Amino acid sequence: MDAPTTGDGMGLFTVLSTDVLLSPSGNKVDLKELEGKTIGLYFAANWYWKCEAFTPVLTHVYHQLKQDGSDFEIVFVSSDEDHASFERFHSLMPWPAIPFSDLQSRRSLTQRFQIEGIPSLIIINSKGELIRTDGVELINRYECRAFPFTSEKMAELEADEEAKHASQTLEKLLSLNGRDCVINHKRQVPISELVGKTVGLYFSARRCPPCTKFTSKLASIYNNLKEKNEEFEIVFVSMDRDEAGYLQCYSEMPWLALPYDSESSKALARYFDVQGIPALIIIGPDGKTVTREGRNLINLHLEMAFPFTEAQIRLLQERMDEEAKCYPSTLHHAAHRHILNLVSENTGGGPYLCCECGEQGLGWAYQCLGCGYEIHLKCGRGAEGECAET
Ligand SMILES: [Zn+2]
Ligand SMILES: [Zn+2]
Fold first, then answer.
1. Domain count within the chain
2. Where does a domain end: 281, 307, 333?
3. Are residues 129 and 25 in the same domain?
4. From the CA of 357, which ligand is nearest?
5. pLDDT digits over 20-78, tens only?
6. Enzyme group, top EC level (predicted)?
7. What pTM was estimated for this model as a whole?
């Protein structure tokens, strides 16, 4: 435990371990300008796409906070490969940086705050005390509202979120910007027609191979459920960067979509804390969230997952336990040179990726512990897996 705090009002000088900062145009910045402010130490590098993507988000928040007169400043701590790249990257930012030549300060900050991945935004309060290490997540989730990052502020934001989720309805979720329709390719569909159904919000984008793969699987499940007249609908929420991507992505989907509006889509993704795509959030007939794990549940149980409720998943789990009794306790699988053992969640089979079909699995599996080789029961045996008649 060596919490990097100073807390004696001397604050920032000690934290930064330098008294020279450079503006984006290369001029010296007086450290006094930073005193008494909440500081974000921004660890990033131009060569990593996640930093490239996060920098404009942070810049937007920075400008807004400045406009509101908030006492916030950011200091860029570069891990660029050379001086020219540093200058190019820093010129895109409106805040000062530790000079690239000051390798010692950059290194000591990286060590002091135990930076393991970039981008990283470390928040120091006006007294020079470390208060948050998850600035990137907080900015992505709350944008300006995250300021000043104090525990009181976090508690307030979480209470806000909770209240929003508690009063959530399908209309509130989908009628962003006052719109009352979603689209079914060329046709408009009133949101009111979806009320009372189980609705999947499908976050996806073009040029995302896992999305493409999951979309085709989801489409066949969707069509099967529709054939059975289940009260189920899916709405595509585009994470595409442009409308062309959205249109192409949507052309491969048999379900509804929100019209292209990247701000509303991003707001929805933030609201559900979508961390990666594809993601399938399931909304129940009462308008409340059933699960954010729609994708995993589809991968595990296919259309049997519907309506995705806890009761249904428990039932499927019990059925899997029952079925597993029909499988031999060891298996020689052609694709692996060792004997595989039948394992359940209780005997070491947690979540896994099936080495045979590449999809997620949970609980029951055939496993070679030594090699980390794990497959679904059904994948070990071909298609059939029925008990012999008793
Ligand atoms: Zn499998
Ligand atoms: Zn093995």
1. 3
2. 307
3. yes
4. 1
5. 899 999 999 988 888 889 999 999 999 999 999 999 999 999 999 999 999 999 999 99
6. oxidoreductase
7. 0.75
Give the tens place of pLDDT for each residue, 149-178. 999 999 999 999 999 999 999 999 998 778
Q: Residue 355 Cα, ligand 1 centroid: separation in angstroms?
A: 7
Which residues span the domain enclosing 333? 323-381
**pLDDT, averaged across the chain:** 90
Q: Which residues pair with 184 in a beta bridge?
A: 187
d(CA 190, CA 160): 28
Does residue 372 belong to any structural domain of this protein? yes
**Which contacts of 217-226 are long-range, i.e. CB under 8 A and separated by 24 or more positions?**
217/298, 217/299, 218/280, 218/298, 219/252, 219/253, 219/254, 221/298, 221/302, 221/303, 222/254, 222/255, 223/254, 224/303, 225/303, 225/306
Tokens of 31: 């450290």
Identify whether 317 is part of a domain. no
| Distances in whole angstroms, Cα of residue 109 to Cα of each of 62, 93, 101, 262 | 22, 20, 14, 36
For residue 337, how far is its CA from the centre of ligand 2 (angstroms)?
A: 6
pLDDT in tens, 290-301: 999 999 899 888
Ligand 2 centroid to Cα of residue 286, in Å, is 48
**Nearest ligand (C-alpha, residue 340):** 2
Ligand number, closest to the Cα atom of 368: 2
